[in-house]
Amino acid sequence: xxxxxxxxxxxxxxxxxxxxxxxxxxxxxxxxxxxxxxxxxxxxxxxxxxxxxxxxxxxxxxxxxxxxxxxxxxxxxxxxxxxxxxxxxxxxxxxxxxxxxxxxxxxxxxxxxxxxxxxxx
Length: 121
Description:
This protein is an all-beta fold.
């Protein structure tokens, strides 16, 4: 079993910054993509940023140029640096990893529990 634990959410003023972290633990053979998604009240979950195993990145249009995703493969951890935060960035942020727990198992999606990010003055 694989567990993802997120940290780093909170309340920040518009224009401020936050850094989210998500660490995977448990039986892990390999991790493919890592990513961050978010969901605001009354909306569908949307992709924020994804980083592949070779370090390629993709961002949602609304965060491109303000957010940066990175990963530490040795620690099975993914980060999201969020700068120039806006009130519309307020949401619950979820990390996602595509994990293979042994050499011959299929890759499966795992999700963190979510961390609240609130941008308000």
